[in-house]
Amino acid sequence: MEKKYDVIIAGLGPAGTVALWHLAKQGFRVAAFDWRKEETLWGKPCGDALGAHHPREAGLPDPPLSTIKNTVKAIDIYAPGEEVRYRVFGEGYIIDRNAFGKWLLGEALRHSNVEVFLGAKVLEPLILDGRVVGVKVRISDRVEEYYANVVVEATGFSRAIRNKLPRHWPIYEPIDPKDTNIAYREIIEYEDYEIEEPNVIRIYLDQEIAPGGYWWYFPESRRGVNVGLGVQGGMGYPNPMQIYHEKLLKHPLLSKSHKTVTAAGAPLPTRRPSNTLVGPGIVVIGDAGYTVNPVHGGGMGYGFRAAYYAAKAIEQAHDKNDFTEKGLWSLNIDYMRGLGAKQAALDIFRRFLQRLSNDEIRYGMEKKLIPEQDVLYTSSSGEINISVIEKAKIVLRGLRRPGLLAKLKIVAEYMKKAKNAYLEYPEDPSKLPQWVNGVEQLFSEFEAKIAEKG
To answer: pTM for this one?
Structure first.
């Protein structure tokens, strides 16, 4: 008997589970698969920090108290050497990923139209007449085929389905290793030390410890910390686990007596979103669609929003009985013009940061070339928007480093250009190739101009 559903979801990490939650509420018959078991659901290692606004913007309720390890009131950003610090205030959580994932999955399973298969490995897409029509899955010792009008690819960085799509499809888009970070993190518990300001999470910029990335220190309690680092991929840098043990453990915060509760690593995308998140019969969200913050690599909030828009697009496609690329296109328009525009701008900023030396980072923060009060605005809007008076002060403060000021001017210009390009995302799939060419040219121009400044 053919197993046929309205929607299939491959992957039940943050993006896939949120998509399932929405589609279950909308009444669709859904089959969802994940290779993990319940006890390791949402098991990707990361910092586990989540801005309080992210669930609300994705149509979700606030996380229940049982899924929150700690509340966050501010972020401290340290320059190399740690003598200069920015404090950025904002509300958020350190969540228990597994607890949050199980809770959200349980809420979806309250609906009888949902079937979930854990410990199930999605092997490949099923393609018929130029459209994805289902997936092939291994469950225990048997391989089965499941069919649906739409398949949601949410298998994370592995991109288990996307990597096996026809290469001439626009949705098939490999990632440059330089647009990734390789992360390693440990959950530690101190034996006789209590953390100062446990509601403040810390990010440390240091090209010697975390080249092309940063290292983090996120308290989960008075004695427990999520600590790790990410390094830029494709550059030949040492393995982050090696750096952690050889360098990071010498830091005063980590040289204190502690035990390691868990340790793990994972790759993640750190770039603008995929040129398209839809194909014929398929939508791609989460890490599989590169829906992440390019600067800090946080993917939960972006994945939530992509899943929310995906559920809306699937509902519209169902109403029109059109599951082609064009029928699902509203996901692209909603995401690219909403969150994708900011993400593209931050991709420009990320590329700038990765070129800076420790000395340049330290100087820029010390002289407040981007004032402390504007850091939150830049990260939330994707723009560097500084008043005329403040610009004059910055010029005076930066006279000893005219090259750095010139770079910052280029960055601000191209962040705005990138954001505007995504705000003008095409209404129709036929115009995508022309738009992609324009975006690629824009990013190439930026790389050339920033390289000229040394």
So the answer is: 0.94
**Equal fold, 3-48+97-175+271-328 vs 69-92+177-269:** no
Residue type, 443: F
**Distance in angstroms (rounded) separating the CA atoms of residues 267 and 170:** 23
Rounded to whole angstroms, the Cα distance separating 5 from 397 reads 62
Tokens of 332: 């692209």
CATH T-level assignment (fold) for domain 69-92+177-269: D-Amino Acid Oxidase; Chain A, domain 2 (3.30.9)
Cα 314 to Cα 104, 214, 227, 281, 289, distances in angstroms: 20, 37, 38, 10, 16
Euclidean distance between the first and the last CA atom of the chain, given in angstroms as a whole number: 64
Give the 3-state secondary structure of residue 185: strand
- The two tokens of residue 190 are 């101190």
CATH number for the domain formed by residue range(s) 3-48+97-175+271-328: 3.50.50.60
Summarised one tens digit per residue, pLDDT across range 332-385 is 999 999 999 999 999 999 999 999 999 999 998 988 877 776 676 666 666 766
Contact 24, 105 (CB under 8 A): no
pLDDT higher than 50, residue 232: yes
Radius of gyration of the chain (CA): 22
Phi, psi for 274 (deg, rounded to 5): -55, 150
277 burial (CB, 10 Å; 0-12 / 13-18 / 19+) is buried
Long-range Cβ contacts of 165-170 (<8 Å, 24+ apart): 165/125, 165/127, 165/132, 165/279, 165/282, 166/127, 169/279, 169/280, 170/275, 170/276, 170/279, 170/325, 170/429, 170/432, 170/433, 170/436
Q: Could you tell me if 386 and 405 are in contact, meaning their C-beta atoms sit under 8 angstroms apart?
A: no
Please give the Cα distance from 30 to 453 (Å, whole number).
Answer: 53
Q: Report the C-alpha gap between 300 and 46 in whole angstroms.
A: 10
Number of H helices, E strands in the chain: 12, 16
Q: pLDDT value at position 380?
A: 65
Cα–Cα dist 15/231, whole Å: 24
3-state helix, strand, coil in the chain (%, to 5): 40, 25, 35
Domain definitions of the chain by residue range: 3-48+97-175+271-328, 69-92+177-269, 343-452
What Å distances lie between residue 268 and 151, 162, 180, 232, 449, CA to CA? Answer: 22, 16, 6, 10, 27
